[in-house]
Specification:
Layout (H helix, E strand, L loop, with lengths): L1 E5 L6 H10 L3 E6 L3 H8 L3 E4 L5 H11 L3 E4 L14 H4 L1 H20 L4 E7 L12 E2 L14 H16 L12 E7 L1 E3 L10 H7 L5 E2 L5 E2 L1 E3 H10 L7 E5 L5 E2 H11 L7 E2 L1 H17 L3 E2 L2 H6 L9 H7 L3
Parallel strand pairs: 1-2, 1-4, 2-3, 4-5, 5-7, 6-15, 7-12, 8-11, 9-14
Antiparallel strand pairs: 10-13
Helix pairs in contact: 1-8, 3-5, 5-6, 9-12
Length: about 325
């Protein structure tokens, strides 16, 4: 296939490109700067400089590639502050890429008569409704209000998912029908990510700066970055249009994964803080991340995409694949 990866030099893109090239596909990847062209060429792909927030630039890039499939991996997560009270501020550019960038890419995909459009969303836990069971499948609703710190980010996720899945329905989208697939990735870990030995989270745990708040009952879902890439490749030609959770087999309570990760990165035994004490420091959203968020089930992705994570659980991955 001819495949266009918007965000070809990002965390997922650089892992997808070699897999696709090795499988014989013709790969085009976007980069925001000329410097990325050489990196894509070295991986066997054709680089195209593109401004994802400029509609004409996106139109021109997709038209040049003439792809059968477009993969939306546009984010701007390289400079997160780690301050949970500033969540929407940290994600401001990523949220524009999930709204404006998604709209530009979908318009370009329809114009180029692309068959399939695969987009990155989030399924690591905090966006789910925080009632009922602790593990949610794709039919469960997203939360109505995640807290003031994350309202803009949730709105951007909702926009992306609605736009991409609606593209499949010719009665609700203009022009060419596109098979819209949304992949809700879990929390990344592995080399080059915040959750790694050298990443920001690993550093916080080594310094004893990440406590377990309340009972630590909030449930997160993780996925190794290499498994993100393999699942995305599987979604290029498998599975019906719709939403899929790309996570490992074991949703993880905070009170289990933080101590184990701290041990693996050489950190101290994490402090335990009551929620009332932590709330002024990390906000209501931060307390929810620690105590009430829900995890995700990967059953649909395994069943319909034929995908199985190489790191079945975070327990194994934190020990052998964290980097």
């Amino acid at each position: 296939m001819r495949i266009f990866i918007a965000g070809g030099t990002g965390a997922v893109g650089i892992r997808m490109v070699p897999l696709l090239v090795a499988a014989g596909h013709e790969v085009y990847g976007s980069t925001r700067h000329d410097a990325g062209l050489e990196a894509l060429a070295q991986m066997g792909a054709t680089g195209i400089v593109m401004d994802p927030l400029d509609a004409q630039s996106v139109q021109d890039a997709v038209a040049k590639a003439e792809p059968e499939v477009v993969v939306h991996q546009l984010t701007a997560l390289g400079s997160l502050s780690g301050n949970l009270r500033k969540w929407d501020q940290d994600f401001a550019m990523t949220n524009r890429l999930r709204t404006e960038g998604t709209d530009h890419l979908l318009a370009a995909a329809r114009a180029a008569e692309v068959r399939r459009f695969v987009a990155q969303s989030f399924g690591g836990g905090w966006a789910h409704e925080r009632t009922g069971g602790w593990v949610k499948d794709e039919t469960a609703p997203l939360i109505t209000d995640p807290g003031k710190e994350a309202r803009g980010t949730l709105a951007a996720i909702r926009h992306l998912e609605s736009a991409v899945t609606a593209a499949t329905d010719p009665s609700t989208s203009s022009g060419h029908r596109v098979e819209g697939v949304v992949l809700r990735y879990g929390n990344f870990y592995g080399p080059g990510n915040a959750t790694s030995r050298e990443g920001a989270l690993g550093e916080m745990l080594r310094k004893g700066k990440m406590p377990v708040v309340g009972g630590g009952t909030g449930v997160w879902s993780f996925v190794h970055i290499d498994d993100v890439a393999s699942a995305t490749v599987a979604a290029l030609d498998r599975g019906a249009p719709g939403i899929y959770h790309i996570v490992d087999d074991e949703p993880a309570p905070v009170n289990q994964w933080i101590p184990l990760l701290a041990e693996e990165v050489g950190g101290r035994n994490p402090m335990r803080l009551p929620a009332w004490f932590a709330r002024p420091l990390i906000g209501e959203f931060g307390v929810a991340l620690m105590t009430s968020v829900r995890g995700s089930s990967n059953a649909k992705a395994k069943r319909e995409l034929g995908w199985t994570p190489s790191y079945a659980t975070w327990r194994e991955g934190f020990r052998t694949g964290i980097g």
